Amino acid sequence: MTFESSKNLSAVGALLIVIGAVLGFVVSFSGILSLIGIILLLIGLKGLADFYKEEGIFNNALYSILIAVVGCVVGVGIIAVTAVSALADEGIDWANVDDWVNYGTDVFTDFDFSPILDLLVALLVGLIIFYVVLIISMYFLRKSMNQLSTKSGIGLFGTAGILVLIGAVIPVIGLLLIWIGFVLATVALFQMKKE
């Protein structure tokens, strides 16, 4: 793979991730757009890692994606299992509509809060897992961006890397910083030139 094709694949992939994040608030297919962007970004980063003879550029980006995927699956799994268990403790079959319709009729007479408390604890644990995984994932992405900055001589990669890491540490508002970091990485990828 040539430098130009690797650069273009990476840049288009990063751009699709940025667009997918924006469209996520409007269109339901944006997840597919972001997934295609992640795949293109990784393929392009592999080519750039080979060109610069620095495998850390690709490996750290790959670790970032794998950690994020595994962490999300574990977090969602914990929340889902606890939710189904809490519903079963309340005598609700989640697939039976009649259980949902009849559930509220005796809520004030003999309601047990312990399954809901279990669900809230599971939600909290799931959110903590998501938070920690996001920080670890963005740490590896920052390492990849720093190595790309060093090898390419484009300091914007380093700025993008620090923004995504700071964004991961700051709850809620940090998601905007992560998005800005990806915008900067996209700009930096389009600016790359073969030296």
Question: Topology, please?
Answer:
Elements lengths: L2 H21 L6 H23 L3 H34 L7 H7 L10 H39 L3 H14 L4 H18 L4
Helix pairs in contact: 1-2, 1-7, 2-3, 3-5, 5-6, 6-7
Give a short overview.
It is built from 7 helices and no strands. The protein has about 200 residues and is mainly α.
Written account of the structure:
The protein is an all-alpha fold and 195 residues long. The protein has one domain (3-191). It contains seven helices and no strands. Helix 5 packs antiparallel against helix 6 (156-169). It is elongated. The mean pLDDT is 87.
Task: Name the helix and strand elements from N-terminus to C-terminus, one letter apiece.
Answer: HHHHHHH
- N- and C-termini, Cα separation: 16 Å
Structural class: mainly alpha
Low-confidence stretches: none
| Secondary structure: number of strands | 0
Estimate the helix proportion, in percent.
over 70%
Number of domains: 1
What's the number of helices? 7
* Shape, per Cα inertia axes: elongated
The largest β sheet comes out as:
none
Strand percentage: under 5%
Backbone CA Rg: 21 Å
Overall pLDDT confidence = 87
